[in-house]
C-alpha cells in the first residue's frame, strides 16, 4: 500500500476539521436550554443514519484509573463497541501508566481496521 505523506496529512486535516465542527455544535447546543429541555435533540438523533454512526466514549479530563469503588482501581478500560458493518467507535482516556499521555481505543470492522492499521503504521514511519 503506497500511502503518501500528503495523503496522510489530508486525513489528519479532515479529522481536525470534523472535530472542530462537532465541538462548535456541542458548545452551541449546550447553551440552548429549549433545545435540550423540549427534547428537540431527540428529533435530530433519530434522523441519524444508523449505518454511519460514529461514537466516542471516555474523557481525557477524568481519571478513570483513579476511580475506586472499594474493589480496587481498574486494570484496563475498554469502552469501544460497534453493532453494524459501517460503525466506528473511539474512546479516549488518561493513561494508566504515565501522566499527560492518552489511551486511544478504536473499533472498526475487520477489513476497515486492517486498512486503518496499514495507514497508521505508514504514517508512523514519518515521525
Automatic annotation (TrEMBL):
<protein>
    <submittedName>
        <fullName>Uncharacterized protein</fullName>
    </submittedName>
</protein>
<dbReference type="Pfam" id="PF02458">
    <property type="entry name" value="Transferase"/>
</dbReference>
<keyword id="KW-0808">Transferase</keyword>
<dbReference type="InterPro" id="IPR051504">
    <property type="entry name" value="Plant_metabolite_acyltrans"/>
</dbReference>
<keyword id="KW-0012">Acyltransferase</keyword>
<dbReference type="GO" id="GO:0016747">
    <property type="term" value="F:acyltransferase activity, transferring groups other than amino-acyl groups"/>
</dbReference>
<dbReference type="InterPro" id="IPR023213">
    <property type="entry name" value="CAT-like_dom_sf"/>
</dbReference>
Amino acid at each position: 500500500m503506497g500511502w503518501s505523506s500528503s495523503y496522510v496529512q489530508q486525513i489528519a486535516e479532515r479529522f481536525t476539521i470534523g472535530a472542530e465542527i462537532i465541538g462548535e455544535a456541542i458548545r452551541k447546543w449546550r447553551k440552548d436550554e429549549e433545545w435540550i429541555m423540549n427534547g428537540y435533540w431527540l428529533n435530530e438523533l433519530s434522523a441519524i443514519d444508523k449505518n454511519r454512526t460514529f461514537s466516542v466514549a471516555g474523557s481525557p479530563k477524568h481519571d478513570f484509573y483513579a476511580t475506586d469503588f472499594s474493589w480496587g482501581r481498574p486494570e484496563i478500560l475498554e469502552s469501544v463497541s460497534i453493532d453494524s458493518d459501517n460503525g466506528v467507535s473511539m474512546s479516549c482516556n488518561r493513561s494508566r501508566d504515565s501522566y499527560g499521555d492518552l489511551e486511544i481505543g478504536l473499533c472498526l470492522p475487520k477489513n476497515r481496521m486492517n486498512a486503518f492499521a496499514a495507514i497508521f503504521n505508514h504514517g508512523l514511519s514519518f515521525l
